[in-house]
Specification:
Elements lengths: L1 H20 L3 H18 L10 H11 L3 E4 L4 H10 L7 E4 L4 H11 L7 E4 L2 E4 L3 H8 L2
Helix pairs in contact: 1-2, 4-6
């Protein structure tokens, strides 16, 4: 569990450090807010609730929604999540750091490494896909 939050904690600590390191308190508060927002973006909170790979694959087989394999702190996962907006909640998100079967599914698609985001939908797979590609599969 700590592995999921280390980057967010580091961002928050940087913000607190800058709060006290600044000679002007207003500027320090601005830095703290900036780093707090960054911490939120890289934390697991910014992503829809994760399910296991087994649950995601079973649900996806019945309703055709995409399965997004991700990990906390991944800038490409954050980019995909932000670009999908509210539509991201319609996909099934699998945290590969919490689910070994999810990590194995990613390795099977990528040829042995754990490159994320990896998205599977309707028998197709894509590594670090364009948000438009995922959006098309969400609307089916």
């Amino acid at each position: 569990m700590l592995r999921n939050w280390w980057l967010a904690g580091l961002m928050l600590l940087c913000g607190v450090f800058l709060l006290f390191a600044q000679t002007r308190p207003g500027l320090g508060a601005v830095w703290l807010v900036i780093f707090a927002v960054l911490a939120l973006l890289v934390s697991p909170v910014a992503f829809p609730r994760s399910v296991t790979a087994e649950q995601a694959q079973a649900r996806s087989a019945s309703d055709g929604r995409p399965v997004v394999y991700w990990r906390p702190g991944c800038p490409y996962c954050i980019r995909l999540r932000l670009r999908l907006g509210l539509g991201a909640r319609r996909a099934y998100w699998v945290n590969i750091w919490r689910d070994p079967a999810g990590a194995a599914a990613v390795r099977a698609v990528t040829g042995g490494d754990e490159t994320v985001p990896t998205v599977t939908a309707g028998g197709e797979s894509a590594v670090n896909p364009a948000p438009e590609w995922v959006r098309q599969r969400l609307t089916r």
